[in-house]
Amino acid sequence: MFLDTTLAALCAYLVLHYHEPSGITDGLLVILPALVGAILFAGPLTLWSCVTTTASYFFVLVLSVVLYRLSPFHPLAHFPGPVLNKATKLAGVWTTWTGHQHLTNQELHVKYGPFVRVGPNDLSIVDVDAVISVLGPTGMPKGRYYNARRDPNAPSNLIILQGEPHAHRRRLWNRGLTPESLHEYEAVIAKRASQVIAHFQETSSGDIDLVKWINYFTFDVMGDMAFGRGFNMILDGDKDGLWETIEQWALSAALISHMPWAIRWFERIPLVSKNLIKLRKFGLECAMQRMKAGATTKDLWYHLSDEAGIEREKPSVKEVASDGALAVIAGADTTASAVASLFWFLLQNPNIYKQLQEEIDTVYADHSDPLSTAKHSKLVYLNACINEALRLHPPVPTNGPRQVPEGAKARVVAGRVIPEGTQIYVPPYSLHRDPRYFSPSPNAFIPERWLDSDKTMESAAFIPFSFGPANCVGRQMAKQEMLMFASVLLQNFTFSFVDGFDAEAWPAQLHDYFVTTRGPLMVRAKPRSV
Ligand code: HEM
């Protein structure tokens, strides 16, 4: 009996070796053990026969997979890494669950060097050469990791598309983020920033959770920008619990991205599908309201749905709704992380805060409006502080992997040959803290490194917005929003941590679920006389 089960399991292994589990190969995991059991016991199936056949079948199947992955015959055998990561993707699932994937990966790079095998068929590479050869224009397509982010009941959005469909959709996005479009969005950012300022002025105690208000600000801005209407979180709060939904969805998407083949089962878990359905509904509702209202400004919807009629074929409403929801989720969460980290670093470094305050007060000494972009080129130190916050706390700390296509030739990255099918991470968090590229003190917040030529500063290794054809399409919008919001907050208030707030513990609450979720940042905002 054991021999037959072993043979059946080995056959299944050989098929699964070349094909990820799918609708067809599901049979190997369910039907085959049942068949073997039926043949072996040639009589009515008993519970005992089912249990023993299935258990021995899966034992041999899992053992053969693990032994092959750890063997010298595996194409990634010569890359170092922890045994558990080489053996199973569950190691990656666990690290993601802890929220500290970025920290764990960095520890692995310190231990093993620039190349680490972080999964059975996954490498993490920390080398500036990988930025170009993996992410660059002649780099590689997005990995199977992204398949799990596909909503089976909605068209793919920009972040999931590949090749020509991606390039086509990206043209529409680019049109919505030209300097002229950014100029249109200035008024939106100014209106929402003024609402936050008014709220802080009215808060009698002055004690606030800065993270919450930054979240509301970026969410309302992205709503106005994408759909010509905000969600009024600043005025009404998060009535529908959208931030919680986004954060829960981010965690489940990050977990399942390690095993995209399991998405069909995972989606059936009510907690997971609930969040996905809520986000899809949110995108469609925004789309319907925007269509009913018509174009009042040239918002992102105007460009994504090609209201100007430039394209031969207009995208469908569902496609635009998917992209509109992506804009809100991708744009609000990342920018909020960046602004929150900026303020945490400023409050941790009073001398830097003081120097930045002097710059703000000097640049806007003539009572000019910090909510105009006219003086942004003069905010040299603020720019350096933002870059330094993005370097140490990149809002997308590990990013998604690219992949050497199946059936394609092996590729050379940073001098090493990488076989077909390998997923490659180029994690911004580790790259940004590599002493080869940022010295001295790569882990310290030193905005001056962006200004002094005597410091090691490899700008090609600075990739908070990723790099290449699928880099962040909204990076200029994010920069504009951060400069405007930080300037007006600093001009109007003096911030300090609330007494008793454990500021040191805050970075540990940054959880890397592809985007970063954040804990509360309790500060006191004392109005300044402007
Ligand atoms: C500080 C703020 C931001 C950071 C750090 C950031 C970072 C990133 C990164 C690292 C990627 C690449 C993801 C990948 O490779 O899978 C990305 C993609 C993207 N970002 Fe951002 N982002 C920010 C703000 C924004 C804003 C404001 C928008 C919306 C206007 C936006 C929209 C997008 C979109 C649509 C993509 C997908 C691009 C593509 O696949 O072609 N992001 N972002």
From TrEMBL:
Pfam families linked: p450
Keywords on record: Iron, Membrane, Metal-binding, Monooxygenase, Oxidoreductase, Transmembrane, Transmembrane helix
Secretion signal span: none
Membrane-crossing segments per the record: 45-68
Domain of life: Eukaryota
Metabolic or biological pathway, per its Swiss-Prot or TrEMBL entry: Secondary metabolite biosynthesis
Cofactor(s) it depends on: heme
Protein family: Belongs to the cytochrome P450 family.
Name of the molecule in the record: Cytochrome P450
Species for this entry: Somion occarium
